[in-house]
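One-letter codes give the sequence; each number marks local geometry. A record appears below:


***
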Amino acid sequence: MARAQFQKGQKVWVESVGLWAEVEKVIPVWAKGFDEPVRVTYEVGLGREFQNHELQSPESEALSSNLGTWRVLRARNKWQDQNDCAHHPFPGSYPVVVTDDADWGGWRVPGAEYDRLPEKIEQQARIIAATPQMLNILNQLVESVDEAPEDAPPETRRLAEAAKAVLRRIQSQPLPPRKATSAEKPDAAPADKTGEHVA
């Protein structure tokens, strides 16, 4: 039995040719009496069909292992005095997720937004900081099922397929933003307490 490892529109590395291509067509080969295809090949626009072992997806594991160590740091709240924000989980500070070894770069939130929902922002910071570890878990789940799909329970296979879908979304290139027509242009973004506009 064979399973499709790639899907139409997915970017793949063609090792024998040494270039990136896009899967144009997934071609299952069926045999009478089998519930699944006996072989799956792919048309990638290079003049012949390729099998699973000839193609590679962008290395999601390399992506996750190259992310480094993300962590939550506390930044001083310049917009409010500590007494004015006693209802915050950490009065006088807000979370900053740094994604660089030099303690800069990453994710921050405007002070007004943090003041509105501090518990939610704290949780988001912890989730974002855990992203590299979660990507590694997704990769390990996919790899363990791909090694022996027939041995994996149906629920584990379903979870592996969901993990693959998440990894594909992470790896895919975003489309450029669509230019809004004059009728679609939104009103100016509101200003936060610092006078800076927030999107």
Summary: Residues 13 and 19 are 6 Å apart (CA to CA). The helical segments are 60-65, 111-116, 118-129, 131-147, 154-171. The beta strands are 11-14, 19-22, 25-29, 39-43, 49-51, 55-56, 71-76, 93-98, 106-107. Residues 154-171 form the longest helix (18 residues).
